[in-house]
Amino acid sequence: MGHMSSADRPGDGRDTREVLLFRNAVRSARRRGLGPLVRHLAATAATITGAADGFDLHRVGAGLFGIDPSGTTTALRDTLTLTTTVVSARALPTGTRIGYGGDHVTDRPTNTALLPLGYADGLPRAASGRAVVWVRGRRRPLVGRFSMDSVVVDTGDDLLLPGERVTVFGPRASGAGAGTGAVGRDAVPTVAEWAAWADTIPHELVTRVGTRVARVHRTTTRADADSAAHACGDDAAPVPSEHSPSGRPPSVRSPIHHQEGHRA
């Protein structure tokens, strides 16, 4: 097996060179009496672009979660949803400083809500001042620097209630540019957007979600996935069950649900 260095850049000349090197290596091995039965070179990006076709296997990892490193397909659907619940909410006057260093200062009377997750749970601190979340059917900005265990969302005229659910990221609604990185201001934030806000790649976002975050794994049909994606556009993403598939309740450390939905 091998791994291509530039498969996420369609048309990069190194792709062709690396395929030729791999084929030559296989031929060299066979001339020396070895008999590789299974050959594979393509991960998700090369599988999508066809840069390493003609071998025995494809290693589709990120693609199973809706991530397209090549940015060339609309066939993939995000399968991850990260939600949390409001711990507390309060009205703040103009001039209130929020977060470490007081970097964010309210420029008007507004409402805020405290969410019980932070960079210790996988939210990239580099996204401070850029990221948004989805609550009550609209996007709201996270304000102030991300803390280890909490972040603050500016909810404007809406005073949230403790226990209300907030979606950090999730799948696009059907027809909203799934798989292309295209998003809308009236859509649930996506993993790709969070990656852009943190100047990183979606892979890092989904692998850094910590062990304090409860997981709910689901198997869905295509119809289920389409229905769920449509519902997320209406602030009605699938609600996780009270217990994980193992029968153990989610961690009480932080009421966060990391839902992973896989098609059958």
Overview in brief:
The protein is α+β, with helices and mostly antiparallel strands and 264 residues long.
What layout of secondary structure does this protein have?
Elements: H1 13-31, E1 40-42, H2 44-49, E2 57-58, E3 80-85, E4 88-92, E5 97-98, E6 104-105, E7 110-115, E8 132-135, E9 138-143, E10 151-156, E11 165-169, H3 191-197, H4 202-207, E12 214-220, H5 222-232, E13 257-263
Parallel strand pairs: 1-2, 12-13
Antiparallel strand pairs: 3-11, 3-13, 4-7, 5-6, 7-10, 8-9, 9-10
Keywords:
five-stranded antiparallel beta sheet; 264 residues; disordered C terminus; 13 strands; four-stranded mixed beta sheet
Strand order, biggest sheet?
A: 4-7-10-9-8
Termini separation: 28 Å
Largest sheet: 5 strands, antiparallel
Global structural class: alpha+beta
Q: How many strands in all?
A: 13
Low-pLDDT stretches are 175-182, 231-264
Shape: elongated
**Helix segment tally:** 5
List SSEs in N-to-C order: HEHEEEEEEEEEEHHEHE
Quaternary structure state of the chains depicted: single chain
Helix content: 10-25%
